Amino acid sequence: MNSIQEVLGNDPRFQADKVSDEELEAWRKSIEEKDRLNVIKSIKRNREKIYRLDSVWGTSGEQTFTFQKWNPKVQPNQKLAHDIWKKSADITKRMFDSNFNVLFYGEAGTGKTAMVLAIIDALKQHSNKLSMFVSVMDLRELIMYDFNDNEAAIKIKNIERSMREVDVLILDDFGSEAGGMKNEGSATERLQQFWFRVAEARQVKDKDGNKRYSTIVTTNNDRGDLERMYNKKIVSRLITKKAENTVVFDGLDDVRE
Ligand SMILES: Nc1ncnc2c1ncn2[C@@H]1O[C@H](COP(=O)(O)OP(=O)(O)OP(=O)(O)O)[C@@H](O)[C@H]1O
Ligand SMILES: [Mg+2]
Q: Quick one: 64 and 160 in the same domain?
């Protein structure tokens, strides 16, 4: 049996409007491509929603900051404040299309969290990367909470899954919950196990050996402190040793009002 295309194609009345196989194929491809892009967009929107729901902001709620708002003049050492801004912006640009761990280290009130919020904003504006913010202290509260509570258990499971798979994970104030880590007990053990699973998942590399995920950590504690508080294996997976990916906020003043 002849196809409709063949029958109509041979009828002189349709000759003028005849669509070639190539044209049909191109049309089909363009529809498929549009569908594909729509699916990708809607998956991204859904993932964005999930990471937003699973972010752990703590009592102060969701916060925002931008690179434009960083004001070197609030610091006595304006040059240092400017250099820190520049280095953070350069790191962010590199993160648009590659993955690596970043460490923001320094005293309280020097602007580490503000800078990390600026990175979240820049990634949203200028890249396809999705991010998730976790206040480590508030996460600890959740994990140490009574585990017989089913709803809390489900919430923690969701948070863990998102922390393992989000493109850019922010761990704000890593080490702040460490007082609790020294205690013996099943809750502490649970916390250690949680961190180990997350740290291990974020190590993953693709087939070309490139890191699949980025993790940005802010902390007041140095590496040695963190290794004592958590565990060497966890620290080695989450905290970069590379100077180019480390921003030291020492030398800046506490500008918290
Ligand atoms: N250079 C800056 N320009 C404008 N605002 C700033 C600057 N540095 C810090 N701030 C503001 O000062 C306050 C304290 O900064 P931030 O919370 O980022 O400090 P931190 O280093 O994260 O402190 P901690 O170690 O206690 O968490 C915030 O409200 C932040 O927005
Ligand atoms: Mg902070």
A: yes
Q: Which residues pair with 56 in a beta bridge?
A: 134
- Domain for residue 256, yes or no? no
Do 50 and 76 have their domain in common?
no
Q: How many domains does the chain have?
A: 2
Name the residue at shortest CA distance from atom 24 of ligand 1: 108
Q: Tell me how far the alpha carbon of residue 146 lies from the centroid of ligand 2, in angstroms.
A: 27
Pairing of strands 131-135, 168-172: parallel
Residue 104 pLDDT class (50, 70, 90 cuts): very high
CA 216, distance to chain mean position in Å, is: 8
**pLDDT, tens only, 105-146:** 999 999 999 999 999 999 999 999 999 999 999 998 888 876
Nearest to 110 by CA among 141, 85, 146, 138: 85
Q: Is residue 7 part of a domain?
A: yes
Whether 155 and 64 share a structural domain: yes
CA distance linking residue 124 with residue 69, whole number of Å: 16
The residue among 234, 216, 185 whose CA lies nearest residue 103 is: 216
Ion ligand 2 neighbours (CB, 5 A) are: 113
Span from the CA of 119 to the centroid of ligand 1 (angstroms): 14
Q: How far is CA 77 from CA 90, 115, 240, in A?
A: 20, 17, 26
Same domain, residue pair 38 and 165: no
Range of the domain at 77: 57-248
Burial class (CB in 10 A: 0-12, 13-18, 19+), 3: exposed
Compute CA 5 distance to the chain's CA centroid, rounded to the nearest angstrom: 51
Share of the chain above pLDDT 90, in %: 74
| Nearest residue by C-alpha to atom 6 in ligand 1 | 111
